[in-house]
Design goal:
By secondary structure, the protein is an alpha+beta fold. It is built from 19 helices and 35 strands. Helix 2 runs antiparallel to helix 3. A nine-stranded antiparallel β-sheet has the order 1-6-7-8-9-16-13-12-11. The chain is 30% helix and 24% strand. Strand 6 and strand 7 form a beta hairpin. The longest helix has 21 residues. It is globular, with a radius of gyration of 27 Å.
Length: 804
């Protein structure tokens, strides 16, 4: 007998273990953590997302019909294939000769002809696309939209559950959806205040390539095979299973592909899914139908209450690591819908609580779309509607996937970067082939984009596809994770990736003629173009600032890693020697950081990418305290770029202004990011009514970048140094945060009032000296592992029990 057939036998004792888990968590959530809605979603960008890293569901909150878009993170069309040109390396000397001679236009033409991907790149059918798993449709018998009143729906960020509630014909209906990681199941729970009030039809479908059939009296199974893009390779196979359980009423299969539930008191629907995705090599590693069946067999043994308790205990073990509340705004706004709060804040209404909600929404999205053992959050995190998401729903390596993980370490979610590191490991073999095919170089490389099949070739167009810094930028996350955790075994495991990336760049650097600096060639400053002296436009160049900044970081940190591990002293010496010969950060005659080796005039002065300021964030090479002239040049660059941008670009500029210490400017950009975007027209950057970032279209990196930026306003950490409230905006005059993480294994809590810190709480995971900076006040603290200190505004210790 399943758990759903015998709920009572579990009793209160079954849940006792989960109650104790919750009690052991560090922080009680503070502030408002509900994303509210006043009407059903008309479109995807108004829905409520839930996820467990692998499975996802978006709830629309309809009345007569409820719709859930279902997702599974490995639902990729396409197939593994070699996109490298076999003879590309033969063209490299001529491309470089043209660049050294200053003929970038001719070099770009040759890149387009001979140095892009061998096929159509991301447009090739074999590249594939991330696709929707399907749709779960619930059509309610006798229910009319016009009869509903007292409608509410909300996404609870602390409980990770989406709820819809309304009254119709005197009956209160409540519908709940969550996606459980412990049980790998999507759960839909329907309740009514009056017995025998739930009658509905349940169906599973998708846009194409599916077959749905009933299984027994209470189940549905949907299976299919995605398009591989090739006649020679089988496509990815998927399976979705659904089981229905009721209290009271009846269930029966109808039409061979649906279930009919009649006069039930309450209804629980369980959805499991799997694919036969076997990693970048594409091997079909297991039977999708059987995997989905195994998950279902386990899930049905647990009643709804236990599934919910297990789900929330697991989720809160991540979410409740950080608590943030900010006040001194209009408290009534907390009860408003997210759309109304966005509109008011964008107009200038002070709503500090929205900043806290937006911050925690980003953390919710990361917990829900990136879990150890799975694929990393993609351009839409986990959630996609249909089979044609923007930019294939893939991973872009010239800022976007990196931005997805910027909030991970500082907001206590560093262990959720595991999928990003797994992606990097999967790129080693194809990246080694690409390095040899194009550059006749050692090591490995990844260019602008990658997919579930390990694509590492250049893009299909020279103007953007020659960007070469993707693999170096990915390696930055390895070193950052090590700095936060001090995990030497992790560093030892990942060191071959850093070494391989370093070996590639060491193999392919060339000397530019004017100064003899070592530079990359060919390359791009991501997606940006410039005017040549004769007025022609070009994008292909040598040694753009972002490349040189990344390589200084990569070579320096790989050398430090080698020193820590003692594996290759000769390589370490070469890295240190080469690092000093890279092109330095230059300031142009206009006072700005130069984006290219030469003072080219950009075609679009307000271009969305700010790649040349990588040294400010995340690189940290440009610092207001240690390099004030470069910091001023970075400010000038940002001023000229302007505050108009796409969603993710606004988030990046927020981070840059925060890192430069200007919290008010960063907050002004946050208000721009709160620009309420019509989800039907999608004509501007900002935020959709469900708080998703609008690029447009929906791209999740802006959410993650904004969360990282809000954290950066409150805490900026460097090796052995913690900077407290370095960029606190005047619009956020009071608040309390606990659980932020600083480099070096320090957990930080801060309370502030009237714009001034009143209390600082520190706890260290290991012994060491920590320098704490608050404004002009600097203190050096000797911390012991497990020690807790409480400091006042003068950074003087007045307590030891920081978190008690």
């Amino acid at each position: 007998m399943s758990g759903f057939a015998n709920v009572e036998r579990y009793g209160a004792l079954t849940l006792l273990g989960f109650s104790s888990m919750l009690a052991a968590q560090s922080f009680v959530p503070s502030g408002d953590l509900l994303v509210r809605f006043g009407a059903p979603a008309r479109v995807f960008e108004e829905s409520m997302p839930t996820g467990n890293g692998r499975l996802g569901a978006t709830m629309y909150g309809g009345i007569s019909e409820e719709r859930l878009d279902l997702n599974e993170s490995s639902m990729w069309s396409g197939s593994p294939h070699d996109s490298d040109r076999t003879d590309a390396a033969k063209k490299l000397p001529e491309i470089r000769r043209l660049l050294i001679a200053g003929d970038n236009v001719a070099a770009e033409a040759l890149v387009n002809k001979s140095f892009t991907s061998a096929d159509a790149g991301s447009s090739d059918p074999r590249y594939g696309s991330y696709e929707e798993l399907g749709k779960l449709l619930l059509s309610f018998d006798g229910m009319k939209d016009s009869n509903a009143s007292k409608y509410r729906r909300w996404l609870d960020l602390d409980g990770a559950i989406a709820t819809t509630s309304f009254v119709a014909n005197g009956v209160r209906y409540t519908r709940e959806v969550f996606t459980s990681a412990p049980d790998q199941v999507i759960v839909v729970h329907l309740r009514a205040s009056q017995s025998h009030s739930l009658s509905l039809r349940v169906s599973l479908s998708r846009v194409e390539r599916f077959q749905t059939k009933t299984e027994g009296k209470d189940g549905l199974v949907m299976t299919g095979t995605l398009d591989s893009g090739s006649h020679d390779v089988a496509g990815l196979r998927y399976a979705t299973r659904m089981r229905a359980f009721t209290r009271g009423g009846t269930i029966k299969p109808i039409d061979g592909d649906s279930l009919l539930v009649s006069r039930a008191d309450d209804v629980t629907l369980l959805v499991t899914a799997a694919t036969d995705y076997g990693g970048f090599a594409g091997r079909h590693s297991h039977d999708a139908e059987f995997a989905a069946l195994q998950d279902m067999r386990a899930a049905v043994q647990r009643p709804y209450a236990l599934l919910l308790a297990r789900h929330q205990a697991d989720y809160r073990s991540y979410f409740r690591r950080v608590s943030l509340a900010m006040g001194d705004g209009e408290a009534t706004l907390e009860q408003s819908t997210a759309a109304d709060r966005l509109a008011a804040a964008h107009r200038g209404t002070n709503d500090p609580g929205l900043a806290a909600l937006y911050f925690q929404f980003g953390r919710y999205l990361l917990i829900s779309s990136s879990r150890p053992g799975g694929l990393p959050a993609n351009l839409q995190g986990l959630w996609v509607e249909g089979i044609h998401p923007g930019w294939k729903g893939d991973w872009h390596l010239n800022v976007n996937v990196q931005m997805n993980y910027w909030p991970a370490e500082p907001t206590g979610l560093g262990d959720l970067t595991d999928p990003l590191f797994a992606l990097m490991e999967g790129l080693q073999v194809p990246g080694t082939h690409t390095a040899r095919s194009y550059y006749d170089a050692d090591g490995w490389v990844a260019h602008v984009m990658t997919n579930a099949w390990g694509f590492t070739s250049p893009g299909e167009e020279a103007s953007w596809g020659s960007t070469i810094i993707g693999s170096a930028w990915l390696c930055q996350h390895i070193w950052e994770h090590y700095l936060y955790t001090g995990n030497v075994e992790f560093l030892r495991h990942m060191y071959p990736m850093m070494k391989g990336a370093s070996e590639f760049y060491l193999s392919m650097l060339v000397r530019e003629p004017k100064h003899g600096w070592l530079v990359t060639a060919p390359s791009n400053s991501p997606e940006n173009t410039f005017y040549m002296p004769d007025g022609r436009k070009a994008g292909v160049c040598m040694g753009p600032a972002i490349d040189e900044e990344n390589l200084r970081y990569l070579f320096g940190t790989t050398a430090e890693a080698e020193a820590k591990l003692g594996l290759d002293e000769d390589l370490r010496a070469m890295l240190i020697r080469t690092q000093t010969q890279l092109a330095p950060i230059q300031i142009g005659a206009d006072g700005r950081v130069m984006e290219w080796l030469e003072p080219y005039r950009e075609v679009d002065p307000h271009h969305r990418h700010v790649s040349h300021l990588w040294a400010v964030y995340p690189g940290g090479e440009i610092d207001p305290e240690t390099t004030p002239k470069l910091a001023e040049a970075a400010r000038q660059s940002l001023e000229v770029r302007g505050d108009g941008a796409t969603g993710w670009s606004l988030a990046y500029k927020m981070l840059l202004w925060a890192r430069l210490g200007d919290g008010d400017h960063a907050y002004a950009l946050l208000r721009n990011l709160w620009n309420p975007v019509d989800p039907i027209k999608q004509s501007s950057a900002g935020s959709f009514p469900n708080l998703w970032d609008s690029h447009p279209p929906f791209q999740i990196d802006g959410n993650f970048g904004a969360t990282a930026a809000i954290a950066e306003m409150l805490l900026d950490s460097r090796p052995n140094e913690v900077r407290v409230l370095p960029a606190l905006p005047s619009a956020l005059p009071e608040g309390r945060v606990d659980g932020l993480k600083a480099i070096g294994g320090v957990t930080v809590g801060v309370t502030w009032k009237a714009g001034r810190m009143t209390e600082l709480r520190l706890q260290s995971e290991r012994d060491g000296v920590v320098i704490v900076r608050y404004g002009s006040v600097v203190r050096e603290l000797q911390m012991k592992a497990g020690a807790r200190k409480v400091l006042d505004e003068s950074l003087r210790t007045f307590g030891q029990n920081a978190f008690e």
